[in-house]
Amino acid sequence: MDALEHLRRLCLALPEVTERLSHGEPTWFVRDKKTFVMFANQHHDDRVAFWCAAGPDVQATLVAQAPEQYFRPPYVGHRGWLGVYLDVHLDWDVIADLVEDAYRAIAPKTLIAQLDASSCRPD
């Protein structure tokens, strides 16, 4: 499975998530309104990555620890969003955690409670 398909499965497994193109790239929304993950296929450079919402200090910490894997994305980086390169060795368990954390940063409490109750995650 390629990185986009794996990312898509992770995002669409979460409650009330939809996918549509935004700025020419696959993007995932909570309740078809709020973006929480955006695919970036050489969108602003020659790398394949995704951008996701992140909690306080996550971006700074991960970029400092592993700049070969994480970066501050354009346009949304100033709001704390995290960029994750997909053209490097990936630990999909870590990616799944980042996607779920992005969802939790954007989703309303009712959907987070639904996620907690189901505790589902695709393989």
From TrEMBL:
The keyword Membrane does not apply. Keywords: DNA-binding. It holds the Pfam family YjbR. SUPFAM superfamilies: YjbR-like. One of its GO terms (molecular function) is DNA binding. It comes from the Bacteria. Gene3D superfamilies: 3.90.1150.30. This is MmcQ/YjbR family DNA-binding protein. It comes from Lentzea indica.
